[in-house]
Amino acid sequence: xxxxxxxxxxxxxxxxxxxxxxxxxxxxxxxxxxxxxxxxxxxxxxxxxxxxxxxxxxxxxxxxxxxxxxxxxxxxxxxxxxxxxxxxxxxxxxxxxxxxxxxxxxxxxxxxxxxxxxxxxxxxxxxxxxxxxxxxxxxxxxxxxxxxxxxxxxxxxxxxxxxxxxxxxxxxxxxxxxxxxxxxxxxxxxxxxxxxxxxxxxxxxxxxxxxxxxxxxxxxxxxxxxxxxxxxxxxxxxxxxxxxxxxxxxxxxxxxxxxxxx
Length: 262
Fold this sequence. Notes:
The protein has one domain (about 20-235).
């Protein structure tokens, strides 16, 4: 069963609902995912935000470079890291502009997310991974904003907090506080405290208990980040001229733009 936005009988996504991304909790908590770099996680959530069950999944290099402020080499390396980890599969290679003939446009590579396309047991899953239930659900535009807002280490730690059992609406089953170690977060000890402070300043997590002496501080998701998806009318995604918003069009994969960096 494909996990994604509601599909209507005529094969298109429902235009009356806010599109949302659905990321399995067991993926966020598995050893394969936790071993990824924070930069690769930023690219992964962009792919999740662009997923639509009725369209090819693409992430043009220029979109990733501009939105995430990453170099072309970093984007390429992160995509290679994700495919090597079997989190993402490449369906078709991209084509550089002019490669198939002087003035031809480029074509973005096409990817696949096994856990969104109905694979019963994705290849990233291991027997000793946490048995987490449910999925982290977040509106696609908010997820794209999150990818741009958080640094690599911030994204890595933020998604660690999201790797918990979840309710049907995507909210954590229990938003319990916890201590955080460098080993748990996968972040160098010298950097961890700075990342925690930064996430608190951005309203992503909150400290529930101050650290005193040998007693470590405890943290949990900020209440605003522990909410689930609520049913409601979709906000207008058209500009004042009545044409589709460019970011939304790319995010839903409606048209592949030319790709100068591939």
